[in-house]
Amino acid sequence: MAVYDALEALRHSTPRPLQRWFDPLMLAERIAFVGATGGHFASMVSMQRLRQLNPVMTQNLRCISILQSSSALLDELNAFAPTVIATYPSVAALLADVATQGLLHFAPREIWTGGETVSLAVRRRVEQVLGCSVHNSYGASEFMSIGWECSHRHLHVNTDWLILEPVDQQGRAVPAGQPSFSTLLTNLANHVQPLIRYDLGDQVTMHPECCECGSTLPVIEVQGRSDDSLVMVGRDGQPLTVLPLALTTVLEEEARVFDFQLRQQSKQSLVLRLDLHGAEAAPAVARCRSTLEKFALMQGLAPIRVTVELGHAIPRGHSGKLQRVVAQPRRTGRWCR
Ligand SMILES: [Zn+2]
């Protein structure tokens, strides 16, 4: 964890270098981590470790759970009024939506995203609506700081602390400039639980050219997780956005299923596909149903209907990465694009 923190501290470029020069420990900032809290998750452990090491940071570093309803999440954020938010692109997009409704009562100066693919469209919208800079990174629980973004907005890989190998479907090396099918990670920092050529499932393109920023660390482009946010309906009849990471977290942590796909069928119904068969599936189905219904209640959703489809091989996309939360396709008008 110390190696990961040092990499973050030294390599993260900042849009406000002067501010960081005078305040290297960011003591003048209020930093909110908005993600899955309460479990032994890598980002959460990192935040709690920083708070323990630097008691001064206890006041200005807060972890906010995405498992609560979006209105409770918003209340907590508005009360804390963070200047920096570290979160997932789907949460950043939700905050931009909320801001356009005039419900965000503070103006963050920086948003750090990671954990999911951030599209250029989402990035631009967040920057425009919130008037802040978005800073992206690439990491995984298996290595928290795989890549960092330079001032030229390129992702550089920390190849002095890890080995990243883009491979094709047969596990053969993919040359620079071509998108891979998957990526193998070897962690050179973790001597407690060695990870050697661990398959991350992410599609990456390693670029052969050097970056103009002057860093000699290689530049990559990543097509990682890209689950959808679901627009459902609240008990008051209003649309309510449900974050994909909240759904996958409760299914993993509470229902204890890991191979699944959740498809939205309508504003109030979901289809859960599981690769399980017969009698052995019954307890898992019961756990999934009660977990999702409890989650919906907690989120303030109108009652939902959950249909479970068993015995489905879970389809994987082009990159081999499974999209686990799929929104209902949007109906567009004939002339709309
Ligand atoms: Zn660069």
Briefly note the structural class of the backbone.
alpha/beta
Ranges with pLDDT <50 over ≥5 residues?
Answer: 332-337
DSSP strand content:
25-35%
CATH T-level topology of the largest domain: Rossmann fold
CATH second-level architecture of the largest domain: 3-Layer(aba) Sandwich
How many domains would you count in the coordinates? 2
Which sheet architecture does the biggest sheet show?
Answer: 9 strands, mixed
Instruction: Give the neighbour order of strands across the main sheet.
Output: 2-1-3-4-5-6-7-12-11
Overall 3D shape: globular
Helix run count = 8
CATH superfamily membership of the largest domain, which one? ANL, N-terminal domain
The N- and C-terminal alpha carbons lie at a distance of: 46 Å
Rg measurement, Å: 21 Å
Which CATH C-level class of the largest domain is it? Alpha Beta
Order of helices and strands: HHEHEHEHEHEEEEEEEEEEHEEHEE
Please give the oligomerization state of what you see. single chain
Proportion in helices? 25-40%
- Summarize model confidence as the mean pLDDT: 87
Named once each, the bound ligands are: zinc ion
Number of strands: 18
Short description:
The protein has 337 residues and is an alpha/beta fold.
Give the secondary structure arrangement, pairings included:
Layout: H1 2-11, H2 17-22, E1 31-35, H3 42-53, E2 61-65, H4 70-80, E3 84-87, H5 89-100, E4 110-113, H6 120-130, E5 133-140, E6 143-149, E7 155-157, E8 162-167, E9 182-187, E10 198-199, E11 203-207, E12 219-223, E13 230-233, E14 239-242, H7 244-253, E15 260-266, E16 269-274, H8 278-299, E17 305-310, E18 325-326
Parallel strand pairs: 1-2, 1-3, 3-4, 4-5, 15-18, 16-17
Antiparallel strand pairs: 5-6, 6-7, 7-12, 8-9, 9-10, 11-12, 13-14, 15-16
Bound molecules: zinc ion (ZN).
Zinc ion (ZN) is lined by residues 150, 152, 154, 156, 211, 213, 215.
